[in-house]
Specification:
alpha/beta, Rossmann fold, 6-stranded mixed sheet, 3-stranded antiparallel sheet, 9 strands, 47% helix, globular, binds BIS(adenosine)-5'-pentaphosphate
Length: 232
């Protein structure tokens, strides 16, 4: 099974992707996480990417496609994979099609996390991330047991540089200008499944569970959508 999680910043893609990847033993590829690792390690890619991520712009397609290709080529993705934050532009979507085709693989579904801008700004202003393991929290909706400390590994929680309100607004503009067109791209291919990502974390998780289970049950994609999600 190969899935894409698509949607605006702060829609909850990462929160749900980590759960689904673990539960279904899918190889998890999150380009944003990989860029942050590269920036923290001071690699050449990280140095090139930093100015873009800090300002909320997209990293240029050639750099990100190269990064994604490397990640996809690593052992582990043969059995199934979940792509979070890639593709984000039409050239990236076309590159993904080519890469999968070369490996004789296809996408099973693209989950569109639909949520309004106000919710995004609210969610991202309260997001905290573990510096050590990358686990994500929210000061209200998913609070750690101890403030500032990761439940999973005890690492320090911090606020991402690109979660400042002005940068979030820019990321939303960039999403509309460069990524939203992918909804039509995948709708035309019969792959787009809308998830009402404005609901609470557990409810969104349940909708995804149902929708992904339905894919397994109906590999010809004729599975009917459950409440809160619809195939578009
Ligand atoms: P990336 O890290 O991918 O950021 P993003 O797509 O903007 O997504 P986020 O991580 O901000 O949000 P999310 O949807 O994962 O939400 P989360 O689950 O954390 O990319 C960062 C940057 O890297 C980009 O701006 C770009 O510069 C670059 N980049 C990455 N990929 C690229 C590409 N392919 N091409 C070019 N450039 C690329 O949830 C957010 C918060 O809300 C958390 O606090 C969470 O606890 C909370 N929350 C989650 N769900 C709910 C809910 N249902 N109700 C209430 N709170 C919730």
């Amino acid at each position: 099974m190969r899935l894409v999680f698509l949607g605006p910043p702060g829609a909850g893609k990462g929160t749900q992707a980590t759960v689904q990847a673990e539960k279904r033993a899918l190889h998890y590829i999150a380009t944003g996480d990989e860029l942050r690792k590269a920036i923290a390690a001071g690699t050449p890619l990280g140095e090139q990417a930093k100015a873009y991520t800090d300002s909320g712009q997209l990293v240029p397609d050639d750099l990100i496609i190269e990064l994604f290709k490397d990640l996809l080529g690593k052992p582990g993705s043969e059995g199934g994979a979940l792509f979070d934050g890639f593709p984000r532009t039409l050239p990236q979507a076309e590159a993904l099609d080519r890469m999968l085709e070369e490996g004789g693989k296809t996408l099973d579904a693209v989950f569109y996390f639909d949520v309004i801008d106000e919710a995004v700004v609210h969610r991202l202003s309260g997001r905290r991330v573990c510096r050590r393991c990358g686990a994500t929290y929210h000061v209200v909706y998913k609070a750690p047991r101890q403030e500032g400390v990761c439940d999973k590994c005890g690492g320090e929680l911090y606020q991402r540089d690109d979660d400042l309100p002005e940068t979030v607004r820019n990321r939303l503009r960039v999403y509309q200008a460069q990524t939203a067109a992918l909804l039509d791209y995948y709708r035309d291919r019969g792959l787009l499944v809308r998830i009402d990502a404005g609901k609470a974390i557990d409810d969104v998780g349940q909708m995804l569970d149902d929708a992904i289970d339905a894919l397994g049950d109906h590999s010809d994609h004729t599975g009917g959508p459950a409440a809160g999600q619809e195939r578009l």
